[in-house]
From TrEMBL:
Family statement drawn from the similarity comment of this UniProt entry: Belongs to the SF3B1 family.
GO molecular function, one term: mRNA binding
Biological classification of the source: Eukaryota, Fungi, Fungi incertae sedis, Zoopagomycota, Kickxellomycotina
UniProt keyword annotation of Repeat present: yes
Protein location: Nucleus
GO annotation, biological process: spliceosomal complex assembly
Chief location category: nucleus
Keywords of the record: mRNA processing, mRNA splicing, Nucleus, Repeat, Spliceosome
Domain (Splicing factor 3B subunit): residue spans on this chain: 205-350
Domain Phosphatase PP2A regulatory subunit A/Splicing factor 3B subunit 1-like HEAT repeat, residue spans: 995-1072
Gene Ontology CC terms, in alphabetical order: spliceosomal complex
Span list, region Disordered: 1-24, 36-59, 113-133, 179-231
Official protein name in the record: U2 snRNP component prp10
Protein origin, superkingdom: Eukaryota
Length: 1212
């Protein structure tokens, strides 16, 4: 039976419709291989389990892609199988980086900015002066310069050898050539000793290979030269003999030169060290790994060896300090462990300690912190050692107190940071400069520093420096090393903070200390150091006065020692001009003399820096100071004719800024001559040259005396051909410069020639290039008009504008729509023939499925509405039809689109009026009331403005019940986040109150004073004042004063604030109400609540200014008597309000009465009383000094003093 079943054939339909025969093994069955796979479903799986080995060694299984298999990409699966996540790594770092958010400063720095990590802070000396001496820094900089010079020569020689055709592995270091160029000095760290060179020269040289051992000519070891002084960059020899550098050292007569020496050969220092055989001669150093037989004995081993009695454990003296200099550390070579793993190995207990510290969240003496990173242990580790601070000396305790404050500032919450910042500033002198600045500077040099951390640390350093004063003088160089890199940071706020810190350091340390710290870096070999030094020197000059720093700038700019110093001096002058701006005018001639000689320097970098400095000086001094540039005009002009490349760009820029300072005749001559060079450089591919050329073009064509025909024929054609290309639109900054230059050319040559050449670019295929052309055309026609544009050019212009609008990408910027609107507004009535085409395009795009396209169309409607109304006739009909479409689209689900639709409706309402509005206003307002509850801020602002416009112009067309419904919706908007929304809501309350009467609206607002939200109450008081201004004060004041009787603090404060706003808004109309509100204000001035008195003082300020000159002295004098006892308030807000009220009373009552009040306490025996009275007197004296002369008290003359002044003395 089974055999018959197995032999039975079945018919199965194939994938192609044919019938195939299938047997029991189904091997001939055809099916869809793309859906079900084409192989064994068990392919790729292990069919047996291994008994040995580790599962971690099994390679990743490659699974087949099938219907029910894993369909993720292979690289994702491999990444999940092999990735090892770091516990400290931020999992959202890549997402933030993709969004353009990178909080770690080092991650977004370029290679140039990362050079700051190579600079080291100067070491602190034990004498307390801090930092290395001036001579030490000068010597260190000289060594760095010599090293850089030697390395550059060697690289240059290697490059010349490679250019000759030799391989880089075969090129020998040309010692003789380098030595011939380098100064001949004995025993320098960067030179090979002469005896070694002679040995090398005497040894016959063959072509050296990097993988060969050098050989000696006679095959035997040469004579060992005399031992020389060891170099700091060499490992000292183990014995007092030095091998011959020309041959392989040998330990005996028979040595195998083909093997690495080992064993006893190591005793003579002849081969690579091997483990174990030098244990007796190595000195154990901290961090080195040596033989276990040579290690120091532990305390436990000593206790086991020595008896308990008769021995005393000696303690180290208190003044003992372990020597940990790099030279001592290099006295021994670390050797490998015997029987262990060679190389670096971290102790297990150290790893456990670090892991425990990573979990730190609460620091003793600080409290709980939001975070504590592992790198913070380097600075704040001693706070976690658990040591009893009572056993520490005073200096150590102060250091720990400063560390706690810095830790709170860096890692604390906002409240902790605020308190710690205040304490650090107040106790900076007590804690000491070293305790405060050392941790702050170390943290600022950390590689993982973030923006917020850097901001608070710089702020802390700034506050500390303001208090430390001269104590910060020893730390000037360290502060500059840390802060100077911020001067070239991409964040303008960081640059401003750095300038503030350097300015405070300069004022605290003085000019001499600053120049002593900056002088060694003026001629540094590293260009990065010179750049930051020049910027810091400019900040110092501006902070302490250009006149004080001018001698140093002159000496640096004329230095004959190094061209790097001259370049730094020119850069410093340039940055000084950029910072001081017009402040350089008194010192302009001296600054020009500092850099004038650099225009003819032998080094190109100095010439370029000098020319750029003159350009900055001319820009800062414009339009004055041409006399100071007389001595440099000839070198500048010769440089323009002789220079090429980057040097020419600097000279052109200088000429471009000097020319506007000249008189008309000379400016026209120089501008015409310079334009020929500028036109020639239009074709330059250098980005810097093109940017300078664009700026110089603007300066030259704006000069009087340059004819429009010259610009049209000689400049404009080449300019459009060279700069109006698609690649110009790729760089946003370059595109902006091109547009500015185009507008300047249009102002000089006329708008029509420029527009005629740009209309073709309006229909370019590149969206960025079209946007650039639209912007240029819009600015041209907006500034110059369209009077010179003929009918044909007008058609081409409108054709290009409509094409640009129709091809507008969905992600286009708002500026492009504004540019299109500017073109339409400039055309005005001449746009009437094109309105039908514009309306068709707008209606089609308003119904587009894309939300971005609908938003663009609605935004353009707001620009088209005024133009269509000016055209008249069919224009208003088109606007009414568009308004109907906009009304139908008010159910828009995208908030940005809905905000644009509401703004377009408001624009149409403004031009055609509400009577002609379709649909009627009675139907429009009910649709707007629900939209007021929308949470989108743009929708809120647009809807409130539209409701306010309807309430202002057509309130009678809407029932009062609908207006009250809007009032309740507006109450919620009084606590909106954005200020424009709150301002629009307050203004709309005034419109509604004027439309339906103030009673109902005022009742709603007064009830709102009882809420707990302060922002809501403040906006309510402003709305009450607006209602009083719209409906006259007498309709509001009775209800408002009656509300003050409510025994609730928030209500009474709200009433007082509403009165302050009310008198501020109504102005001199307050003279009719001053007697009515005087009792209420007097009661508030003597209230126990401080806020009551503060608000009453604010009312007095506005009331006194409003009634000044209206004969209201009696009530104001009465209020002044109640105000005067509040002059001793200590609250900052309260005393500020009281002093402002007294100043207002001076305007209203006159300075004489304020003087009489002031004289009573100016000579009081209590200092606290005298200070307040003298403060008031100083304010009065500054504001009304002449008016006080007649009211000074008459003092009789005494024997030594004469106080009487006659009228003749006043006149003289």
């Amino acid at each position: 039976m089974a055999d018959s079943v197995e032999d039975t054939s079945t018919k199965a339909p194939g994938s192609n419709g044919k019938v195939v025969e299938s047997s029991s093994d189904l091997s001939a069955l055809k099916y869809d291989t793309e859906l079900y796979g084409n192989g064994d479903k068990y392919a790729g799986y292990d069919r047996s389990i291994e008994t040995g080995g580790s599962n971690n060694d099994v390679p990743a299984v490659s699974m087949a892609k099938g219907r029910f298999g894993i369909t993720a990409p292979r690289e994702f699966i491999d990444e999940l199988q092999t990735a090892e996540h770091d516990a400290d790594e931020d999992p959202f770092k890549e997402i933030l980086r993709m969004r353009g958010i990178n909080r770690v400063i080092a991650d977004r720095e370029n290679d140039y900015q990362k050079r700051r990590h190579t600079r080291k802070l100067s070491n602190e000396r034990g004498d307390g002066t801090g930092g290395s001496t001036y001579a030490d820094r000068v010597r260190a900089v000289q060594l760095e310069n010599e090293e850089a010079e030697l390395v550059a020569k060697i690289k240059k020689a290697e490059a010349s050898g490679r250019q000759a055709g030799a391989s880089k592995w075969d090129v020998e270091t040309p010692i003789q050539q380098v030595e011939a160029q380098a100064p001949q000095r004995r025993k320098r760290w960067d030179q090979t000793p002469a005896d070694v060179r002679s040995s090398v020269a005497m040894t016959p040289q063959r072509r050296s290979r990097w993988d060969e051992t050098p050989r000696v000519a006679d095959g035997a070891a040469s004579e060992t030269p005399k031992r020389t002084r060891s170099r700091w960059d060499e490992t000292p020899m183990l014995d007092r003999v030095a091998p011959d550098y020309g041959a392989t050292p040998a330990g005996g007569a028979a040595i195998d030169y083909g093997a690495t020496p080992a064993g006893r050969q190591m005793a003579a220092g002849l081969a690579t060290p091997a483990g174990g055989h030098m244990a007796g001669v190595l000195t154990q150093q901290p961090g080195s790994v040596v033989d276990a037989r040579n290690q120091y004995q532990t305390d436990e081993e000593l206790d086991a060896l020595l008896p308990d009695e008769g021995y005393v454990i000696m303690e180290a003296p208190a003044s003992y300090v372990a020597i940990r200099t790099p030279a001592r550390k290099l006295m021994s070579t670390p050797a490998a462990e015997i029987g262990g793993v060679a190389g670096f190995r971290m102790e297990a207990e150290t790893e456990a300690r670090i892991e425990a510290m990573e979990e730190v969240r609460e620091v003793p003496g600080v409290g709980a912190l939001p975070f504590f990173r592992a790198e913070d242990m380097q600075v704040f580790g001693q706070l976690l050692d658990g040591q009893d601070e009572t056993e520490l000396d005073a200096e150590a305790r102060r250091e720990r107190q400063a560390l706690r404050l810095v830790l709170k500032i860096k890692n604390g919450t906002q409240a902790q940071r605020k308190v710690a910042m205040r304490q650090l500033g107040a106790r900076a002198c007590e804690l000491g400069a070293a305790a405060v600045l050392n941790p702050v500077l170390a943290l600022l040099m950390a590689a993982g520093l973030e923006d917020q951390e850097r901001h608070v640390l710089v702020k802390a350093a700034d506050r500390a420096l303001q208090r430390l004063g001269a104590q910060a003088r020893p730390f000037v160089h360290r502060i500059l090393v840390v802060v100077e890199p911020l001067l070239i940071d991409e964040d303008r706020h960081a640059r401003a903070e750095a300038r503030e810190v350097i300015s405070n350091v300069s004022k605290a340390a003085g000019l001499a200390a600053m120049l002593a710290a900056l002088r060694p870096d003026v001629d540094h070999a590293d260009e990065y150091v010179r750049n930051t030094t020049a910027r810091a020197l400019a900040v110092v000059a501006v902070a302490l006065g250009v006149a004080a720093a001018l001698p140093f700038l002159r000496a640096v700019g004329r230095s004959k020692r190094a061209w790097q110093a001259r370049q730094t001096g020119a850069r410093a002058v340039r940055h000084t001009a950029e910072l001081a701006r017009a402040g350089v005018l008194p010192h302009l001639r001296g600054l020009v003399d500092c850099v004038g000689a650099g225009l003819e320097d032998e080094h190109q970098a100095v010439r370029s820096a000098a020319a750029l400095a003159l350009a900055a000086l001319a820009e800062a001094a414009a339009p004055y100071g041409i006399e100071a540039f007389d001595s440099v005009l000839k070198p500048l002009w010769l440089g323009v004719r002789r220079q090429r490349g980057p040097g020419l760009a600097a000279f052109l820029k200088a000429v471009g800024f000097v020319v506007p300072l000249m008189d008309v005749e000379h400016a026209a001559h120089y501008a015409r001559e310079a334009l020929h060079v500028v036109v020639r450089e239009f074709q330059s591919p250098d980005t810097q040259m093109r940017a300078v050329v664009l700026r110089v073009v603007q300066q030259c064509v704006a000069t009087s005396g340059v004819s429009p025909s010259l610009v049209r024929t000689d400049v404009l054609p080449d300019f459009v051909r060279c700069f109006w290309a698609r690649r110009a639109a790729l760089d946003r900054r370059h595109a902006r410069h091109v547009i500015d230059a185009t507008v300047a050319l249009a102002a000089a040559a006329g708008g029509a020639p420029v527009v005629e050449r740009l209309v073709a670019h309006l229909k370019d295929e590149s969206a960025a290039h079209r946007a650039m052309a639209v912007d240029a055309v819009a600015r041209t026609v907006s500034e110059l008009g369209i009077a010179d544009i003929d009918a044909r050019l007008e058609e081409l212009l409108m054709d290009g504008v409509l094409y640009a609008f129709q091809e507008l990408p969905p992600d286009a910027a708002r500026t492009e729509l504004d540019a299109l609107g500017s073109v339409l507004r400039a055309l005005g009535g001449r746009a009437a023939p094109y309105l039908q085409q514009i309306a068709s395009a707008l209606l089609w795009r308003l119904n587009n499925p894309s939300s971005a396209v609908r938003q663009q169309a609605a935004a353009l409607v707001a620009h088209v509405a005024p133009v269509a109304h000016v055209c008249g006739g069919d224009g208003d009909d088109l606007l009414a039809r568009i308004a109907t479409v906009l009304f139908e689209c008010l159910g828009e689900e995208f908030p940005d689109v809905l905000a644009a639709l509401l703004s377009a409706l408001r624009a149409i309402v403004d031009v055609i009026g509400l009577p002609a509005m379709q649909p009627p206003v009675a139907d429009l307002l009910p649709r707007l009331a629900p939209i007021l509850k929308n949470r989108h801020e743009g929708v809120q602002e647009a809807c409130i403005n539209l409701v306010g416009r309807i309430a202002d112009r057509a309130a009678d067309r809407v029932p009062a019940r609908e207006w009250m419904r809007c009032c309740f919706s507006l109450l919620d908007l009084l606590r909106a986040y954005r200020k424009p929304v709150r301002r629009a809501a307050v203004a709309t309350f005034g419109f509604i109150a004027r439309a339906i009467g103030p009673q109902d609206v005022l009742a709603t607002l007064l009830n709102n004073l009882r809420v707990q939200d302060r922002q809501n109450r403040v906006c309510t008081t402003v709305a009450i004042a607006i209602v009083a201004e719209s409906c006259a004060p007498f309709t509001v004041l009775p209800a408002l004063m009656n509300e003050y009787r409510v025994p609730e603090l928030n209500v009474q404060n709200g009433v007082l604030k509403a009165l302050a706003f009310l008198f501020e808004y109504i102005g001199d109309a307050a003279r009719d109400y001053v007697d009515a509100v005087a009792p209420l204000i007097a009661d508030a001035l003597v209230d126990r609540d401080l806020v009551h008195r503060q608000q009453a003082a604010a009312i007095m300020k506005h009331l006194a200014l409003a009634v000044s000159g209206h004969a209201c002295d009696r009530p104001m004098l009465h209020l002044l008597n109640h105000l005067w006892p509040n002059i001793f308030e200590t609250s900052p807000h309260a005393i500020c309000a009281v002093l402002e009220a007294i100043e207002s009373c001076r305007v209203c009552l006159g300075p004489a009465r304020i003087l009489l009040y002031t004289l009573q306490g100016m000579f009081h025996p209590a200092r606290a009383v005298r200070d307040v009275y003298w403060r008031i007197y100083n304010m009065t004296y500054v504001a009304a000094q002449p008016a006080l002369v007649a009211f000074y008290p008459r003092i009789e003359d005494s024997s030594p003093n004469n106080y009487r002044r006659y009228e003749l003395d006043y006149v003289l």
